[in-house]
Amino acid sequence: MGSTHSTKKNILYPHPIVETEYGLIEGMNVLIPKDSQKRIAKVFLGLPFAAPPLGNLRFEQQVIIIQKFAGC
Questions:
Q1: pTM (predicted TM-score)
Q2: pLDDT digits (tens, 9 = 90+) for 51-66
Q3: Residue 60 C-alpha from the chain's centroid
Q4: First to last CA, the chain
Q5: Judging by DSSP bridges, how do beta strands 28-31 and 40-43 pair with one another?
Q6: Residue 42: beta bridge partners?
């Protein structure tokens, strides 16, 4: 947060798609800013790993989510 650098222009196509035991996940190829070697990172955002800590789950151990992804 607070970054003034826009990553939108650093997103490259095609997007990587990875098959896992829980389904397909689509990510982004992102050109790493200010990298003299112009390397690319494969980025996957929004992957659920635990139930949100709401209600009775607040201040308790995480409840790991094991379910199929909605897919690409």
A1: 0.60
A2: 888 898 899 888 887 7
A3: 24
A4: 27
A5: antiparallel
A6: 29
